[in-house]
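Bug #77: duplicate submission created two jobs. Keeping one. Sequence:
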Amino acid sequence: MKYTRIIVCLLFIIISSCDKKYVSNIPDFPVYLELDLSFEDKELVAPQAYKVFTSQNINQAIERAGYGGVLVYHGLNNTATTTYYAFDISCPHEASRSVTVEVDNARIYAVCPKCGSKYELLNGIGNPVSGPSQQEGYYLKSYNVFTNGNRIIIRN
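Kept job's structure:
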């Protein structure tokens, strides 16, 4: 009986540690965007294309742009399917609505102009690769992306 308890406890620890959590310091704010790849948002069709949505460029009657704004990124993957990712643009290290990351010229990383943290965009995780956020383990806050033909819906 004693060994059974130990085995059950060990299994619980192993199973719970397998679920990798991507930690962000950005608070939860409502996100809801509807994008049309055949009209207003057609620039997102190209691989590594991106577009930033804030309260200034959305339909505020029905859409919401998160804490600092939403970065929508057309990522690359190992399959033939198209993959879009969405991240909050607020730097997780700074955790301020006014300090937002910017996509670099190569369109691979998002970089915070204040603390210098750099986040990878290609894989859709928003993982920190350098700067204070890498040391803290803070990822870009990501949002759910659903595609249906030429329409994309982003929400949390």
